[in-house]
């Protein structure tokens, strides 16, 4: 087991030009005062209230409703994502748009003390909560932009991005950054929105108004194929889709 803290270990994975960033709030802060986005959904993510209710109330209610009655519970979803990512002891896993660290901590349980789980998010309030709620020594957080990931290429064995791709202004660029962050053979797991064919136009109107984008059933898989992923699996539950694959 390494004597370095999780934040020391994460600094070593950052683009060298960024490694001197502040850690005064318990996470590595690459954004300072810089705002990222201004959609309704984004502003909500930066509020003080949402991080406090997100994991226990908001996510189970909202994402649960989107997954529908036949979708996995939160616990089943975490087990599914761990399987999709084929995590093992010593792995480095990046959780993109980690919010209050709920998924990051779940993934960290599968990688042992020598592994490293890194959560990245733009919201200072979400990350403050993540730091408060995290005891494990193999987890650390970065405040940065998911669409412009700050890590050296090929730093991770696995990358997850759950309940967030639909908030990004440039989702395909974000997926390309995730591919760059992965080592050859690295695994990816995405959970995002799903545009239902029959009510697609309604989905789109709601999406444009709120800043939540709805993805067609082939959109994410096609983008990952173009980025060099294979063995893609696509599962749908209600208004959500789960996609996994492996980088060649
Ligand atoms: C709904 S939460 C998802 C949290 C967690 N991944 C989960 O599955 O519960 C969405 C998160 O995406 C983050 N986010 C949105 N756009 C981002 C961006 N461009 N860069 C980094 N984080 C972003 C928000 O700050 C928010 O914490």
What's this model, at a glance?
This protein is an alpha/beta fold and 248 residues long. The chain has a single domain (6-247), classed as Vaccinia Virus protein VP39 (Rossmann fold).
Helix-strand blueprint:
Elements: H1 6-13, E1 28-29, H2 40-45, H3 50-67, H4 74-85, E2 92-96, H5 102-108, E3 116-121, H6 124-133, E4 139-143, E5 156-162, H7 171-181, E6 182-193, H8 200-210, H9 219-226, E7 229-237, E8 240-247
Parallel strand pairs: 1-4, 2-3, 2-5, 3-4, 5-6
Antiparallel strand pairs: 6-8, 7-8
The structure holds S-adenosylmethionine (SAM).
Describe this structure in words.
The protein is of the alpha/beta class and 248 residues long. It has a single domain, classed as 3-Layer(aba) Sandwich (Rossmann fold), CATH 3.40.50. The chain contains 9 helices and 8 strands. Strands 1-4-3-2-5-6-8-7 form an 8-stranded mixed β-sheet, sandwiched between helices. The longest helix is centred in the N-terminal third of the chain and has 18 residues, at 50-67. The protein is globular and about 55 Å long. The site of S-adenosylmethionine (SAM) has 21 residues, from helix 5.
Biggest pleated sheet: 8 strands, mixed
CATH fold-level assignment: Rossmann fold
Which molecules are bound besides the chains? S-adenosylmethionine
CATH level 1 name: Alpha Beta
Beta fraction: 15-25%
CATH architecture: 3-Layer(aba) Sandwich
Low-pLDDT segments, ≥5 res: none
By secondary-structure content and strand pairing, the structural class works out as alpha/beta
User: Rg from C-alpha positions?
Assistant: 17 Å
Termini separation (Å)? 30 Å
Q: How many domains? A: 1
């Amino acid at each position: 087991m390494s004597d370095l803290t999780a934040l020391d270990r994460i600094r070593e994975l950052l683009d060298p030009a960024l490694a001197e960033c502040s850690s005064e709030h318990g996470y590595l802060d690459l954004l300072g005062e810089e705002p990222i986005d201004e959609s309704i959904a984004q502003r909500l993510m930066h509020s003080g209230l949402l991080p406090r209710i997100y994991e226990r109330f908001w996510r189970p209610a909202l994402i649960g409703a989107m997954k529908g009655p036949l979708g996995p519970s939160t616990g089943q979803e975490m087990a599914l994502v761990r399987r999709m990512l084929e995590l093992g002891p010593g792995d480095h896993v990046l959780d993109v748009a980690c919010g209050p660290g709920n998924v990051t901590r779940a993934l960290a349980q599968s990688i042992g003390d020598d592994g490293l789980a890194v959560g990245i998010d733009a919201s200072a309030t979400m990350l403050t909560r993540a730091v408060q709620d995290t005891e494990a020594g193999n987890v650390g957080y970065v405040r940065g932009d998911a669409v412009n990931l700050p890590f050296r290429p090929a730093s991770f064995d696995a990358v997850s991005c759950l309940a967030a791709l639909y908030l990004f202004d440039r989702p395909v660029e974000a997926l390309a950054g995730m591919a760059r962050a992965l080592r050859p053979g690295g695994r990816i797991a995405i959970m995002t929105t799903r545009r239902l064919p029959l009510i697609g136009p309604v989905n789109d109107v709601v999406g444009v108004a709120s800043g939540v984008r709805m993805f067609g059933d082939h959109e994410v898989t096609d983008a990952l194929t173009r980025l060099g992923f294979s063995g893609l699996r696509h599962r749908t539950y209600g208004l959500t889709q789960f996609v996994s694959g492996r980088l060649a």
